[in-house]
Amino acid sequence: MAAGAVVDSLLSGACVVFTLGMFSTGLSDLRHMRVTRSVDNVQFLPFLTTDVNNLSWLSYGVLKGDWTLISVNAVGAVLQTLYILAYLHYCPRKQALLLQTATLLVVLLLGYGYFWLMVPDPVTRLQQLGLFCSVFTISMYLSPLADLAKVIQTQSTQRFSYPLTIATLLTSASWSLYGLRLRDPYIMVPNLPGIFTSLIRLWLFWKYPQEQDKHYGLLQT
């Protein structure tokens, strides 16, 4: 096997393993909901936006014929849908959540209708769909930055998950290298902010250790 093919296989495998590892961090939330039969301290919107992101990248993978993208995002969409259904099952107030879900589903269906019916040229469709996926992924990676001011103000990183931070860093790095290898900027560029935000989180974990948070909480009580 040629060296280039070996590199491609390794990068593809890394993308699959690290991304599925990142998606599986939601299993702890699922376990929490099942044990407590509540959704306390579990956020709904990340499940929903990640599901839409998976479905968008799944479409891009199908159009591009990339089985790495297809397999990862198909499994990711199934997992996120499972988390969403569990959240809806245990949440007592479903109206606002159902409205959010319906709104994003309508947006997704309108997007599918536009890309598959209004853009007949496959090359143009691939470029526009890749741009849409890139913008959506970048916005997802940058959204946690809104919590930085709160973390610095409280000197507490309890709002962040250390395992998810590591998983995001490895996932973003592997996809950036995979996109670079394929010369596909729509895969490479949107994952660079994931590396950036993960490094910021790691610096905050170093500056404000969670053990310190526990002692601070005891002093406060």
Automatic annotation (TrEMBL):
**What UniProt keywords apply to this chain's record, in alphabetical order?**
Cell membrane, Membrane, Repeat, Sugar transport, Transmembrane, Transmembrane helix, Transport
Keyword Protease recorded: no
Where is the protein situated, by its record's location annotation? Cell membrane
User: What membrane topology does the UniProt entry give?
Assistant: Multi-pass membrane protein
Transmembrane segment boundaries? 6-23, 69-90, 97-117, 129-148, 160-180, 186-206
A Pfam family of this chain = MtN3_slv
Asked if the Swiss-Prot or TrEMBL record annotates the protein with the keyword Transmembrane helix, the reply is yes
Q: Which InterPro entries match?
A: SWEET, SWEET_rpt
**What family name appears in the similarity comment?**
Belongs to the SWEET sugar transporter family.
Function, in words: Mediates sugar transport across membranes.
**PANTHER family, alphabetically?**
RAG1-ACTIVATING PROTEIN 1, SUGAR TRANSPORTER SWEET1
Kindly provide the name given to this protein in its UniProt entry.
Sugar transporter SWEET
Q: Which organism is it from?
A: Echinops telfairi (Lesser hedgehog tenrec)
